[in-house]
Amino acid sequence: MKKVIFALFIGAFALYSCSKDETSTTADLQEVSVSSVPSSISTYIVENYPDAEISRILKMSNSDTTYAVTLNTSELLAFDGNGLHMGHGEPGLDCDSIGGHHGDSLGGHHGDSTGGHHGGGHHGGGHHGGGHHGGGNPGGISLDSIPAAIAEFVSVNYSGYTIHHAWNDTLCQFGTVIEVMIDSPQTGHMKLVFNSSGVFLAIAGRIEYTELPETVSAAIADNYSSYTPRYRAEVFTLADGSKQYKVFLLLGTTRISVVLNEEGVVVCEQ
């Protein structure tokens, strides 16, 4: 039953998003602030999506699924009224191609309650800075500004996928990059990483910390024993087929990410 309710909620969310410029929306849906929802939602996102922040939260009345949370990566999560995670939906439901809301052309978003990956708190910062009320995501790229090489790469190598979201970022192993979220109705979403000229660098995906190769987890235990790993990490499959692993670590209020290769050698730290 919850799956059905969530599916209906996703449909309602899509309609809400696509009619955001109109004066009225579905009566059961209401956009709410991070501070008004259970803190367990922010806690879950910090643990499981440590590189992302909350972009939007919609609340639905009279449903087991109470909150739909969109992340600045365009991923969509569902929570019940107590903040318990119930599942996730496909990204790409917002009509704004770079995730913006309320006239923010660069995709404004909240930081989480602990400041997101790089700090900043509820109204500023987070992984890309700015916050929902602090200037938005300064790295957001409109789809018509994406380098032609990227659009061509996706067209040739990912038939049936649509570019939904793109942003500038800095990754310690690559430097300045363009990250692109693509999605397909059949196979879901995928994040691709390119350099600033549009040359493909890697596919990025989420994995659980327990799924890391033993060489990587052993290196973390040996070199960062005082840190607590986040629940999920990120794996990069490079253009040459090799892999790198980004591990998110916490020590008190200090947050760092470490990139290691398959042998457990530290590539860089950020």
Task: Describe the 3D structure.
By secondary structure, the protein is α+β, with helices and mostly antiparallel strands. It is 17% helix and 34% strand. Strands 6, 7, 8, 9, 10, 11, 12, 13 and 14 form a nine-stranded antiparallel sheet that branches. A five-stranded antiparallel sheet has the order 1-2-3-4-5, sandwiched between helices. Mean pLDDT is 77; it is low at 1-6, 15-27 and 91-138.
List the uncertain runs. 1-6, 15-27, 91-138
Helix and strand sequence:
HEHEEEEHEEEEHEEEEE
- Give me the number of helical elements: 4
Query: What value does the average pLDDT take?
Result: 77
What's the gyration radius in Å?
A: 18 Å
Q: What profile does the largest beta sheet have?
A: 9 strands, antiparallel
Number of domains: 2
- General form: globular
What structural class is derived from the secondary structure elements?
alpha+beta
Instruction: Report the end-to-end length measured between terminal Cα atoms.
Output: 43 Å
Helix coverage percent of residues?
10-25%
